[in-house]
């Protein structure tokens, strides 16, 4: 089964089935990943889906839009591999992707 | 001292009398019955912030697929709002990219022009009905523009969409008029789609949905349902938000003065009104399994009302939750729901509400609400005024 792994804060890793065409945020909600809230439902306006992508995966994800970039840059906890989970569309090639869940802002 | 026992706790969103001020009942629900059962209609209600938020996230337990009103879903076409993943994700992804803050931002000038044009004829009289003359027209005009409908059809469409959300007192189902209005809307959309199919394609939401249909990603009924939900969802609620903002300013003169002096507080006014007095009171879900919560069990297959505006006043989540404060800036309120079904049009609604207030304040200045002329709409889900007359210094 192609999968993505979520590393929540202070909770065991969650290995979730990679559902193509869903977003990382949606797959996190389907698997009840703690810390990913998805408050705005994916319209890029709440950042409650903030994750840090494992360094070796960061370049292999679809590029950020300007809008996602601006949202991420405004976050206090932004890191070099920060992404908004709702803006990352999954495809089979991302089998094995690992992301760490960010603390709330 | 004589103590009178409080009346028995009852939450009945179909009772008109509860619409004037539902908040005392909400508070009692949160404190006394966080899992409330309405035996008259056999549904449950969650009223605390945490419980509502958990429920919107946990769509596997709290499904939308049996409808999101307490009334039984009359199987019509598949609507975005009444689906679960993977169907929901497929539908939502079709348009979600068009509703981000950056994508709706270019509409600002159009919203402002329309707002000005609506206010101007009333300036000399020093009196305007914030709802009828202004707030009821603005969102429909923008939605019509987004969907590419003719301006002269706005009133017609608004009449139908208003009828769809109206409920007669004590009636637990969509009245016949509502069904007829729904059918009229579908006829209108069908004619519109047929028109477009004959002419050149256009690059707007409907154009995008038709292209998706051509690629087999959505069927004709699905397109109709999509247009329907976009017309319904974005109309009434934004109207009521603008009315509720004006009313809350009137009720809080100190903050009215502050916002007039510093227009940068208007975004805070929008957000705090969404929290404190948001138009969408409640959305429903259906349990897919027995749910044990607060020492009670909600059996599988029951409708559950998620009372968002009660969660928004939960003192377990917000400090001084029952106090209105434009400085609070709560970005985690449930006024637009949350999770996968969170309001698709939230960025648009925020834009419209902010620009509407900017224009109202800069043209009217201070205004006073004629309290005796206030009238409310009646719907189990949406709360707000149908008439809100204000007076201001004529110019
Ligand atoms: C102040 C104005 C508004 C309020 C208070 C509001 C409120 C809400 C709420 C609470 C939901 C969640 C429903 C649920 O959880 O079952 C929702 C969903 C939705 N809203 Fe809004 N809304 C507003 C404006 C708009 C506008 C302007 C549009 C225009 C496009 C819109 C389109 C939608 C759609 C399409 C959904 C369904 C999303 C889905 O199921 O994925 N809304 N809205
Ligand atoms: S879910 Fe709101 S920005 Fe991703």
TrEMBL record, chain A:
State whether keyword Iron applies. yes
**Organism annotation:** Sphingomonas jatrophae
GO BP, one annotated term: P450-containing electron transport chain
Which residues span the membrane? none
Required co-factor(s) are: [2Fe-2S] cluster
Is Iron-sulfur tagged as a keyword? yes
Q: What is the lineage of its organism?
A: Bacteria, Pseudomonadati, Pseudomonadota, Alphaproteobacteria, Sphingomonadales
Tell me the GO molecular function terms.
2 iron, 2 sulfur cluster binding; electron transfer activity; metal ion binding
Residues of the 2Fe-2S ferredoxin-type domain: 2-105
Keywords, in A-Z order? 2Fe-2S, Iron, Iron-sulfur, Metal-binding
Identification of the protein by name:
Ferredoxin, 2Fe-2S
Family, similarity comment: Belongs to the adrenodoxin/putidaredoxin family.
Automatic annotation (TrEMBL), chain B:
Is Heme set as a keyword in this record? Answer: yes
Q: Which UniProt keywords apply?
A: Heme, Iron, Metal-binding, Monooxygenase, Oxidoreductase
Q: Which domain of life is it from?
A: Bacteria
* One GO term (biological process): cholesterol catabolic process
Q: Name one GO molecular function term.
A: cholest-4-en-3-one 26-monooxygenase activity
Q: Which family does it belong to?
A: Belongs to the cytochrome P450 family.
Q: What does this protein do?
A: Cytochromes P450 are a group of heme-thiolate monooxygenases. They oxidize a variety of structurally unrelated compounds, including steroids, fatty acids, and xenobiotics.
What is the protein's given name?
Cytochrome P450
Q: Which organism is it from?
A: Sphingomonas jatrophae
